[in-house]
């Protein structure tokens, strides 16, 4: 197997618009994989993440977007020995001309 590549990767996203409001949810699954060693001895476990999104357009020029990553605060590893972010929220205010 290639290092850090899972055989099973699944990503599902849904969005629903209610007038100026758009709501979304994402589910991501990544299966087991191995770290960068020729014998594939360092196994990294699989993980699942749930993310939520929302966006609202105040008018055609001004909007706000919110993204909540890792809603369930899942502890997972992308690379052995490096931390990954826990649950986090991003807010973006956009102005379009």
Overview of the structural elements:
0% of the residues lie in helices and 53% in strands. The chain has no helices and seven strands. It has a five-stranded antiparallel β-sheet, with no helix packed on it. The chain has a two-stranded antiparallel sheet with strand order 3-4. A hairpin with an 8-residue loop joins strand 3 and strand 4.
H-E order: EEEEEEE
Largest sheet: 5 strands, antiparallel
First-to-last CA distance? 48 Å
Beta fraction: over 45%
* Residue-averaged pLDDT: 91
Sequence stretches where pLDDT stays below 50 over 5 or more residues: none
Number of strands: 7
Determine Rg (CA atoms, Å): 18 Å
* Main sheet: strand order: 1-2-5-6-7
Helical residues, percent: under 10%
Number of H/I helices: 0
The coarse overall form would be elongated
- The structure class reads mainly beta
């Amino acid at each position: 197997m290639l290092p850090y590549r899972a055989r099973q990767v699944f990503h599902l996203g849904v969005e629903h618009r209610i007038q100026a409001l758009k709501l979304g949810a994402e589910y991501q699954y990544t299966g087991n994989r191995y770290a960068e060693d020729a014998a594939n001895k360092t196994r990294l476990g699989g993980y699942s993440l749930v993310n939520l999104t929302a966006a609202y357009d105040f008018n055609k020029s001004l909007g706000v977007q919110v993204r909540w990553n890792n809603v369930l605060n899942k502890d997972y590893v992308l690379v052995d020995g490096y931390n990954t972010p826990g649950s986090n929220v991003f807010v973006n205010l956009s102005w379009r001309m």
